[in-house]
Amino acid sequence: MKTLAIIPAYNEEGSIERTVEELIEKAPFVDFVIVNDGSSDGTRALCIEHGYNMIDLPINMGLSAGFQTGMKYAWRKGYDCTLQFDADGQHDPACIGSMVSKMEESKADIIIGSRFVTEKKQASARMTGSALISAIVRLTTGHKIADPTSGMRLYSKSMIERFAKAYDFGPEPDTIAYLMRHGARVTEVQVNMRERTAGESYLNFAKSLKYMLRTCISILFIQWFR
After folding, report:
1. Fold adopted by 3-225
2. pLDDT in tens, 177-218
3. Which UniProt keywords apply (predicted)?
């Protein structure tokens, strides 16, 4: 399957080179495009210096807009599937092959790179939030997703088209739940997740709590009026 890794990047100069070079080394069968989301640091300069395939957004538009930009690119270029892939080094490209194989075998629409297919969730505030989202997804869709907040997801060609043409589709659990309720086939594959290699996550404790609450409310109520 012709696969494109979409790598949204905002101020990732400390990790973008390592992330891309590891992707090239461990998953040479995957093309990639970096969506530079109006970075104010040296991310853009590094991508140009190394000749990386890049879409350069002039201002910071956020993850959803950056990801949809990548989906529009994938749709126009005729890719069979796309991979949502973090620029911060947390996703292990060695796991991509098993995700692509699973999509080919199962004909699923979305493959989630999950931390919790064979491993148990650790006891923490963030994992409690993840468990709550899992419960709400199961309540509203009838299907169990062990790792709904995983940012490593593989999308089929039909999903590429939907994301490319819909203005309000973001790479978040509420959209995944919405798609599941409308017939999308979603499955999970065990992957390795690592700590961020450089920089800081925008999700501190307060923002993480706000994100969890907003996601739960969206799945329970807002998505029914979408």
Report:
1. Spore Coat Polysaccharide Biosynthesis Protein SpsA; Chain A (3.90.550)
2. 999 999 999 999 999 998 766 655 555 567 778 888 999 999
3. Transferase
CA 169 – CA 64 distance, rounded (Å): 7
Read off the pLDDT of residues 136-150 as tens digits, 9 standing for 90 and up.
999 999 999 999 999
DSSP code string of 208-225: HHHHHHHHHHHHHTGGGG
> What b/e readout covers 52-86, taking b as 16+ CB neighbours within 10 angstroms?
bebbebeeebebbbbbbbbbebbbeeebebbbbbb
Tokens found for residue 198: 């450089």
Whose tokens are 């409310």? That residue is 217
- Measure the CA–CA gap between 89 and 208, rounded to whole angstroms: 20
- Count other Cβ atoms within 10 Å, centred on residue 206: 8
pTM greater than 0.85: yes
Per domain, the residue ranges of the chain are 3-225
Residues 6+ apart with CB under 8 A from 21: none
What is the number of H-type helices and E-type strands within the chain? Answer: 8, 7
Strand spans (E) along 115-176: 153-156
Residues 6+ apart with CB under 8 A from 220: 136, 140
